[in-house]
Every structure is written in C-alpha cells, then in structure tokens.
Task: structure prediction
Amino acid sequence: MSEGRERSGEVKALPLVMEAPRGRAKPPRHLADLDEVGRKDLLTEMGLPGFRAKQLSTHYFGRLVHDPAEMTDLPASQREELVTALLPDLMTPIKQQSADAGTTVKTLWKLFDGSLVESVLMRYSDRATICISSQAGCGMACPFCATGQGGLQRNMSTAEIVHQVVVGARAMANGDVAGGEGRLSNVVFMGMGEPLANYKAVVGAVRRLTDPAPAGLGLSARHVTVSTVGLVPRIKQLADEGVPVTLALSLHAPDDELRNELVPINTRFSVAETVAAAYEYFEKTGRRVSIEYAMMRGINDQAHRADLLADVLGVYGMHWVHVNLIPLNEVRGSKYTRSFDEVMDEFVRTLERRGLSTTIRDTRGSDIDAACGQLAAEER
Result:
C-alpha cells in the first residue's frame, strides 16, 4: 500500500492454532504418523508380527518403495494386511506442471477427503529441494497470497506432509526429474498453509524427515526450513524441540502499520515481538534465521523501508539473519504486483550497505502458476 492511502478497518485477531471443522473424518493412519515403537505396537495389537514394522519402514523410507508387489521379503499371505495397516494410500496426484526444462515440477494432490494441496520439486546444479504444504488452504489471510484468499480447509496429518517428500525423493532416485538420477537434499515448509498453526503434525513430520532410516528419511535438520508468518509462542516452542531446522520468518514489512495489512497476525504479535522471538530462536539453536520479504511494487519496496528493515533487524546485530527478497509471484486479479528489478537491486544495495547479508531468491516456475494456491484455486 502506498504512503498516505487509507486503510480498511481493524483486522480481526487470528487464532494461534487453526483447527479443522469438527466432524471431519481423519486421514488414514500411516507409519509416518508413528514412531518406531508405535508402528510395532500397532501391528502387535492387530495380531501381526511386530518386527514387520521395521521391514515396512525400510521399504518406505529406505528403499522409497510403495508398491506391495516389490516388498518380496514380506510373506504373501500377510502382505496385503500389513500394507493396509501401515501404508494406506494418502493422496493422489491429479495434475502436474513442469518448467525450467523439466527441472521444476509442481504437483497438485487430492487428499482422501477431496482437499487439494500442492508441492513443488526443484532441481538445481548442487541440490534438489522440495517445497511442501502443511495445511489444505491457510487461515492467515495474507491478502497477496493465493492460498490465503481461499481460507483454511483443514490441517494435514504428519504422514500427509511427509508423503510429499517421500514421493519427491523417489522421483529423484528414479531419475524422473530432468538431469537423471539424484538425491533429494532439502525440504522447505513454504507451500500451502502456516506450518506453525499445525504445530504437532509439522514437528512430527520434521522428526520423520530427520530420523535415520528406517525410522525416517534421514535428512539433515540443517537442510529443513520451516516457514512462519510469526506465531510467536510457537517459534519459542520450536526452539526447544531439539531439531535445529532453519527458521524462515515471513516478515514482508518492517513497520506495524503496513504489516497489519499484509500479514494480519501482526495485529496480535507486533514486528518487534516477532523479530525478538526469531532472535531467541537463533540464540537457542545457533541457526541463522532467514527473513522472507516478498517485494511488492509501491507497497513495501520503498527506500525508507529498506532502512527501517535494517533498523528493526539490527537491534540484535547483523550476524543472526539473512534477508531473502522474493520477487512476488503475482496472483491473477490481485492489486499486488512484483517490484521492478531496479527497485529490488537498490533495496539489496541499501541492506548490504547496512551490513545485512541479502539475496534475491532465484524464482522458479513463473509460467506454471508458481505461487502456492494458484493451481488448487484453478482446479476448484
């Protein structure tokens, strides 16, 4: 929003945890919802050999196999029952789009209840990253975001979150992404939803992703990034979980007046409170925080806001953050548009002069409804 423009009335405070409507059926229970002990106990309760849980986990997390026909170490007489118990179908791909010569692949998934979510697999020269969803829709109501415009349908289960990553890892291992066989190395919780509003399932997913195989996928916690618009109590809770993931704070504005409009949760937790919580995360984990800042033409890209951003972050020094400027993925029909390149370049120069490490994100898939929520909205 430009300076001096009138703002609409008060924004209602949003709840800290977004609950799905009561009465909804729950997603099928899956081994990724459970730890090793829980998987074994479940099979034992069903009258099945508990040790089979480790074999199933090895197939799913270690070999990246989901087809029962390939699980030849399981007895044929029990195979179907074992797979039904711990490896039920969770989601169905209903549309895929590719870009960047096939190195970017976006998938639209239909969950068991018809909810739609998206994930994006991106292959670079030195890594492969998957951007995953944690909720069907989002309740944070950020007006420039396609997902936020659709509201929240429901939270995703731990297994639904994890499965996006396992499928991406399988695609890389099988050479289904341009560039041949490879390894998935990075996961970013930057798809649909506010991860920390689905806290329990997201932390469970982080543990499954970072637990050594066959308990989990065996990724490095340092290669997992959890994004948030700034749920302060949950940021503090995450700092004490013992999993040193990278925290990405979607700030988007350095002043409360503008951020109240762009990120409505700011009416509950101010810029100062949110940045303080992010710094506390850095202090406890030693992990440098990424400040996400979507560049919007004439809204938040003015020179004085670059200086104000440096002031806000510099309260704790410049060593603890990296600023990641994001050229806005425009949503059709939205008043929010992408900043001009020269404006973004000057924004970077200002921050760097102030001592802040700053980059402009390498955007991918601009020709395939790249902003999360666009493909789902189009399908709906």
